[in-house]
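Hello again,

I reread your note about wanting to compare the complex against the isolated chains. To keep things tidy I'm splitting this into two emails, and this first one only covers the full assembly. Below are the input lines as submitted, including protein chains and any nucleic acid or small-molecule components. They are followed by the predicted structure of everything together. The single-chain runs will come separately.
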Amino acid sequence: MTSPIKRVLLVGGTHGNELTGVFLVKKFQRVPKLIQRVTFETCTLLANPKACEVGRRYIDTDLNRCFEHQNLENLGLSTYEAQRAKVIYLTFGTGGSLEADFVVDLHSTTSNMGLTVIVGSHNPFNMQLAAYLSCINPNVKVLDSRRKASDNPYLDSICKFGCTIEVGAVAQGVLNATLFQQTEELVYAILDYVEAYNTGVLLAKKDTFTIYETIRTIDYPRDEFGKIQAMVHPRLQFRDYEALHPGEPLFLSFDGEDIIYDGDSVVYPVFINEAAYYEKGVAMHITQQHQIFSANI
Amino acid sequence: MTSPIKRVLLVGGTHGNELTGVFLVKKFQRVPKLIQRVTFETCTLLANPKACEVGRRYIDTDLNRCFEHQNLENLGLSTYEAQRAKVIYLTFGTGGSLEADFVVDLHSTTSNMGLTVIVGSHNPFNMQLAAYLSCINPNVKVLDSRRKASDNPYLDSICKFGCTIEVGAVAQGVLNATLFQQTEELVYAILDYVEAYNTGVLLAKKDTFTIYETIRTIDYPRDEFGKIQAMVHPRLQFRDYEALHPGEPLFLSFDGEDIIYDGDSVVYPVFINEAAYYEKGVAMHITQQHQIFSANI
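Full-complex prediction:
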């Protein structure tokens, strides 16, 4: 048998205005027995407490882009989030004082992502967990945003195993009770999966499951000064994970002109019209759909 | 005939993260002929440019609570928004260098308010305009948030006539193309109404229209430290302007308990789960529904 998971870290508030994770972590801190299991310890973390306090995504810079090793080792970086990332890594990361084997980072999004599990890396544990979650709840989508670079800026990369949960659509600064409850159930399913894994129990999976692989991003049309010139098209809004065919509209200009998807194959956009990505130059992520054979993981 | 409207002020970006108004005003500034009419001048204003630049509701304090006369006259107030309010009032307010007779302030909300026209005061011009807009578009709702106090903190109070447009549900920091287009049409309908008013033309209205009068607000259940203990109930979420009966659920606690509306009459909640109102201690506004006879305005 592979080595057991000894410590799981549940993170909320990596972005201070994504309230689902913030309030779930606070609930778990108030009622720890909800996340206690027999074979491992579960820790909780409010990752960006200052941003949570003021209800903003971040204070100085996006915490969920601060975990590349070269940055964690760079003592010259002095933003609040760069320092916070170091503290989190030194506590829960590999070799840390409370080293965790598996981390779940709870996010929400203004895109209609439903219940999305993002697998940051393709190791068998992450993939089998994703297969299990999509088997027990057909609403769960699995997104592969694996970066080609070996170094990874996301919080879920600090442990051996990890995933990010994105739930939406929900506005920043808003608690949606339905999504709160669905995310809570998903966390319990993850913890139960880890418990089964540790005790050698194989939980049911389907023969195949669907994974969406991010292949590139598309920015808003912009003028020479970088100002956006169009909006996500009404026919695409809230259509995350649905097929987009060549010739279908992507954007609507402020003057009412359609701007068309001119690719040559069917793709599946996600993170459509996420509020926090306007400043990142991202109107949506473009993915391809794959069927994965569970037996091949 | 009553005196004509000589200047109309269209305002966006009073809150920097409500993008519908921000981008509509930018469009009108780029293509001024869209808002030009024969009998009056139309001015545009991005009310809080610093907040727009950083994509936040405000820098120091809520600009749309800065327009009480005692504050406009208080030279000791030094927040960015307090100073900005004085500049706006001295320019477009009564006696200002570009005094406007009528102001339209464009907002958006995370609540499902559709196309709401808020009449700040009950003068016949405001009310007849509201009657006309709800006649030509059945999706338009009219909200009376008239304050009992004679002094009014809202931007739409700086002119003789004025209204606030609230469109939603849309997340902060997000452009929703459908709501953008609907708001644009509403602005043109307002300008056409003013043109007709100035030329003595009576535009069609129905005999009666519905108005929702705000009677009080309800806060989230909170603990002794002011921390919220419950979320808007899934059965109430996005149900703005729908009837709420005594005994129906208002909130869902983090532990899954229903919290019931214990009033003794049917009411119509609005601004349900507006992101910006968490800090104001407001989970929703409670309104009563009235039928207004157009002939009695």
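For quick reference: The longest strand of chain A covers residues 208-218.

B.
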